[in-house]
Description:
The chain is 49% helix and 14% strand. By secondary structure, it is α+β, with helices and mostly antiparallel strands. The strands form three sheets. Strands 2-3-7-6 form a four-stranded antiparallel sheet, with helices on one face. It has a three-stranded mixed sheet with strand order 1-4-5. A two-stranded antiparallel ribbon has the order 8-9.
Amino acid sequence: MSSGAVGPRNPDPRDFLNVDALLDGEDRLLRDTVREWVADKILPEIAEWFEAGYFPKDLAKEMGALGLLGMHLEGYGCAGTTAVQYGLACTELEAGDSGARSFVSVQGSLSMFPIWAFGSEEQKQEWLPGMAAGDIIGCFGLTEADSGSDPGSMRTNARKDGSDWVLNGTKMWITNGGIADVAVVWAGTDEGIRGFIVPTTTPGFSTNDIHQKLSLRASVTSELVLDDVRLPGDAMLPNVVGLKGPLSCLNEARYGILFGAVGAARACYEAALDYSLERVQFGKPIAAFQLTQRKLVDMMVAVNRGMVLALHIGRMRDQGSAGVEDISFGKMDNVRMALGVAREARAVLGANGITLEYPVIRHMNNLESVFTYEGTNEVHTLILGQAVTGIPAFS
Length: 395
């Protein structure tokens, strides 16, 4: 017997599964606040920023004032939000542009988190309040030109010289590098890989911005160069040795990505939906054609599925039950999903889909980078492969 009548419920095409009902009042308030800020500060300018290859550094203080920087951390001026709330903020930021979400991810998850998790109390007091406010911009130096998915092979090294450390090496593909005030740099030492807090004004430290990018253009990407950079002994993060330090930071950033990718996908789907209802061909909106409806339905289902997945992993994280494999699941599948939605949306928009008048090609290009960074799609596949077979395939 049926437990109740089944009939039409007039679903919202922008929230078909009514995921909004799964959020509490604080979740919705935070999400809506970030959404409004993105609509006011990011969307009116993002096409020009993307075309110019420009990220406005002054957004950092506005993000800090909203409590977005290190928002999932406790104390030291950080907002101390839930994991779900942090994820929802990432969704809205990336619906604006991946560059905005990348800035927040790098600042909070890659730069502030290692200081918060592995730093001394003095280091936390010195750096975290200013970073939470957006007065101090951070970057994260792990990847090298010849050391991407295999960070253990890094060549950057730190040697003791009396009570000081002397760092030499280069880091590549570093978000925020050219605008950062401080870098958290990972380097090999005689006792293993260690993290160092490096003020960017330190003699011997320099950056070279990477130009001619066709992805993440509204984001600063740089090379870091360390040439006999001398640091005091207390610049080292004292409470972690080995790759578990930087890898735990990457896991923090991947969590934000699995939510953020849904925002990019949603923006593409909504642009295609709106366009299809307005674009008239053969005397009727293209939304009236069966093939267009199939595209719209495929995109809608994918976006809703991705949001439900992200919310589920977010709640697992808040309960302390989300493992590395769960974060890899979400990052891998939601970024892959978002790329598919972006490509389908581009097809709906036709030639208009390749212009910056619409957000689709910008998101599609950005997602190609998101597909690769914070662990490539292949790395996450192998993490999951080991989880389901018990056999590591990395070497």
